[in-house]
Write a structure and sequence with these properties.
Helix content of chain A: 25-40%
Largest sheet of chain A: 8 strands, mixed
Largest interface: A-B, 66 and 67 residues
Function (chains A, B): An RNase that has 5'-3' exonuclease and possibly endonuclease activity. Involved in maturation of rRNA and in some organisms also mRNA maturation and/or decay.
Binding site for substrate (chains A, B): 239-241, 370-374
Shape of chain A: globular
Keywords (chains A, B): Calcium, Cytoplasm, Endonuclease, Exonuclease, Hydrolase, Metal-binding, Nuclease, RNA-binding, rRNA processing, Zinc
Oligomer: homodimer
Structural class of chain A: alpha/beta
CATH topology of the largest domain in chain A: Metallo-beta-lactamase, Chain A
Distance between the termini of chain A: 58 Å
Active site (chains A, B): 202 (proton donor), 374 (proton acceptor)
Number of helices of chain A: 16
Strand order of the largest sheet of chain A: 7-6-5-3-2-1-19-20
EC number (chains A, B): 3.1.-.-
Chain lengths: 558, 558
């Protein structure tokens, strides 16, 4: 199934080359590059959040290697919507070249600009709307409204002489969205009539049967829970989910409660959303949380971040009584959010902490307080039937999602060989209505850690995992440069190994003996002597403690 | 809600003291001690599996501290069933005193004995059956059949002059179990008539509404999937789930396939289950997996371990092509198991790997191939109504489960003050039909790591987490004992920090300067000089790399 590494041939005239750099075989860091006539267009530039086997990593970026030597050929980066997995890596891209034009809808660009401001980057932007057409280098772009869990999301149709490509970005097909802005199936139909040569389509929910329920269905549940709540209400959700927050505001308003926004990103994003008219705030509804504490308990709703159990976010801090708002008996906490795989332990720890404090915790598992932002299988089939694309490239998903999506396409009559299961770095050439795999680039993970980008390697992460599971033992011996005689040590120190250092008293004489033997055999260089130390203590720790810590031996000449 | 630490008063005559040592506020390491008239009975003695914030830990034991000085008073340990979270810590208990009698059903004791054999312990055992009554010290024990996801599970009624206690162990109320052995509600009714003074009840599924479906409902699904499978079938499940394996064997047999068992624990447990008559194996059905490879692909079912994505188990190794059986296109893999919270990433990684190899992966999310082993809310309410216990102690669960269970009890009319939300170490005294909290012991986590038990502390785990997230920097300086002059160093080495060590070239002169300054101020002892080194490099790394690694400074005199 996997495509062997192969540099693609040089690009023929009149051919469009499509290369996903991220988002295939993973949920996150979505990024695809399109090359035609020597020019490059980028669609999306997101981050991936690390898993537990990537300790200490802050963010993971797409591997920019294929475009690093081509920066002057980039004509623009189109952002389909304002989620981190589609915009989070833009600052790192603009660090390479700050004047790459950034193209997206009003809300998307406002969110990107807030992010760029933190990185002290001022970008060149072009705001676009659904229905708009823009020529960017050799790429004729048309933007199409799509519905998602953030307002103002766009699909993009890319026309070149090689054919017509449609990239959905993330989307679903809520037919009664709060803002009335549905995924524009009339435009999809028109593009289908014209002939879609390649369809890049969101796969996140391709293995979920049926249809994603409407966002509107959550409103009555929030209304009922908030209406019945005897004391304070705390709602946690994603800080960019404008329509979810809107429904919380509406329910609070209906029950005579005021709302305090909590969490830096919640405040920032909702201020942007209100300024741009995406969030409708009844006058006098919002209140600063410090003032909110003076209100009676049944007159307030706190709208906060932390629905994924992030340790530094508001909700986790509340659960740990490490926040000014301390939940207690009679309070109601609503997690109006999904539970992203991998976050279960953290989220359940927060739910448990809040329950222990006496709060009534309402979440996805016991009430209908969340719907997904992605099209399920039933919706995707509608798209395939309306578009009838010549070639399909499922994107945005783990392999099982990509494969499930390809099967849906095949169910609607698209030939299996026209549905391409690719991975990051797969090079796909489109010409004359035919898409074919032209090569496979070897791309890696680029880790952001503290102020470093790409400095941490997979080898470092392996070291970290060993340190985490086994700890380390350092052994320092100072020897006389001339005679090789031990002047000081061995000093043995361990961390994360359970025993106090006296457990190593037994092995010190063995190290001395091993060094003397080596020295007697004429070994004198400190590197070789260090290896003698490593072997001696490594074997001893393994036998005596049944452990394999990292051994850090150091023989110093003085 | 939490009970302040308080040593309980000495135990009055005629009072039964109940102290859970594990299993409250967590899923695992279930263990409760009962004390009467100077004698101690233990019910269950299980392990807890570590989470990602406990790296390198193999197992977590209950804290045996409260019984360590009372070993001669222990009259026996009753094991309700053979799951690891109820029996896994028995070897560590018997290491303290090897002749504590171990009491349980036939299958339970066979599984414990297999485990004890690996620890080279031979135990004193007493095999009991449902309906049996045994006097153990001052405790009059009666065993009651309960249904669970392993055969031969028992609840235990404990009679003392202080009253009648019923402990369910883990259970559900499948009314049509494969082996016909239902939870004995007639016995529950009889005990209820007699008067249950304290009811210790499984809370695992107390927050799940309704009723757990019957195990039998999985059979037709397995039959259909295996019947339609074009090539090989691989089923993964828990290695002690005899009835699940039975249904796989039956489905394989019905479709003319033979079955090869894979994985050490699967082979061991199923051999025990077959020997004792719990697993019925059609003659000639089983085949060694090495011979199975000679069969046509549509004539074999592999029954394996690894349904939780455990990296060393068979299924993960298959997904990584690190096993003799290599899944491929046309093969069907069934994960007939739950997805234990915390394992999602690992399990989805395996599902993805198998999908990428071309296998069709059937799991809980896309087919009814698993039912829970625990009573849901509807079943628990039946129990409360039949038993009408005077006092209720929800056990086996996170806090949210314990609280949900207490609410169910209250729904049936039991007063809130008679439902006790306790934590590990809560001391509960029962006398004259009244249960009251008498104190709270301070218990910890006992970590098994390699050959050590209890040697790893929470401080070590904190060190490991820092090492995992940030790595470490060691700095060694050799100074002249007499003059304080630097003879060698600073040698700076880092691991897990991304940069090659040359990044530290800048800070070496700063360290030298700081040491000279300290020396000039008369600082001479190596510990204080080490602190100077720590501060200097720590501040530098924090500012320059925006990181907070573990700093290991060492100033040595030579």
């Amino acid at each position: 199934m996997s495509i062997p590494l192969a540099e693609p041939t040089s690009l023929d005239e009149g051919t469009l080359r499509v290369t996903p750099l991220g988002g295939l075989g993973e949920i996150g860091r979505n990024m695809t590059i399109f090359e035609f006539d020597g020019k490059i267009l980028i669609v999306d530039c997101g981050v991936l959040f690390p898993e537990e086997h990537q300790p200490g990593v802050d963010l993971i970026l797409p591997d920019f290697e294929p475009i690093k030597s081509r920066l002057d050929d980039i004509v623009g980066v189109v952002l389909t919507h304002g989620h981190e997995d589609h915009i989070g890596a833009v600052p790192y891209l603009l660090r390479l070249k700050s004047d790459i034009p950034v193209i997206g809808s009003g809300l998307t660009l406002a969110l990107v600009e807030a992010k760029l401001k933190e990185h002290r980057i001022k970008a060149f932007t072009l705001t676009v709307k659904e229905g708009q057409r823009e020529q960017v280098g050799p790429f004729d772009l048309e933007f199409v409204a799509v519905n998602h869990s953030i307002p103002d999301a766009l699909a993009v149709a890319i026309r070149t002489p090689a054919g017509l490509v449609l990239a959905t970005g993330d989307f679903k097909m809520d037919q009664l969205p709060l803002d009335g802005r549905i995924t524009d199936l009339r435009a999809f139909a028109r593009l289908g009539e014209e002939g879609v040569d390649l369809f890049l389509v969101d796969s996140t929910n391709a293995d979920v049967p049926g249809f994603t329920p409407t966002e509107r269905s959550i409103g009555p549940v929030l209304d009922q829970v908030i209406g019945k709540a005897p004391r304070r209400v705390i709602v946690a959700s994603f800080s960019s989910h404008v329509h979810r927050v809107q429904q919380v505001l509406d329910a609070a308003h209906a029950h005579g409660r005021r709302v305090a926004l909590l969490g830096r990103s919640m405040l920032r994003n909702m201020t942007i959303a209100e300024d741009l008219g995406y969030l409708k705030v009844p006058s006098g509804l919002l209140i600063d949380y410090k003032k909110a504490r003076d209100l009676p308990d049944d007159k307030i709703v706190y709208m906060s971040t932390g629905s994924q159990g992030e340790p530094m976010a508001v909700l986790s801090r509340m659960a740990n009584l490490d926040h000014a708002i301390e939940p207690g008996p009679g309070d109601t906490v609503i997690l109006a959010s999904s539970l992203i795989p991998g976050n279960e332990n953290a989220v359940y720890r927060v739910i448990d902490g809040l329950t222990k404090l006496g709060a009534n915790v309402v979440h996805k598992a016991n009430a209908k307080v969340h719907v997904s932002g992605h099209a399920a299988a039933g919706e995707l089939i509608y798209c395939y039937n309306i578009l009838r694309p010549k070639n399909v490239l499922p994107v945005h998903g783990e392999y099982r999602h990509l494969i499930a999506n390809a099967k849906l396409a095949q169910d609607t009559g698209i030939a299996a060989e026209r549905t391409i299961i690719a991975s990051n770095g797969t090079v796909i050439d489109l010409k004359d209505g035919e898409a074919r795999v032209a090569g496979q680039l070897d791309l890696g993970f680029v880790y952001v850690d503290g102020s470093t980008v790409g400095a941490i390697t997979d080898a470092d992460l392996k070291d970290r995992r060993i340190l985490a599971e086994e700890g380390f033992v350092s052994v320092i011996v100072v020897v006389d440069a001339a005679t090789g005689r031990i002047i000081s040590g061995p000093e043995i120190h361990a961390r994360g190994i359970a025993e106090d250092d006296s457990v190593f008293d037994d092995v010190a004489p063995k190290i001395v003996a091993a060094l003397k033997e080596a020295s007697g055999n004429g070994v004198r260089d400190t590197h070789s002597l260090s290896q003698v130390v490593r072997r001696t203590i490594g074997r001893w720790v393994n036998q005596k403690l049944r452990r394999r810590p990292m051994i850090v031996p150091l023989v110093i000449e003085a």
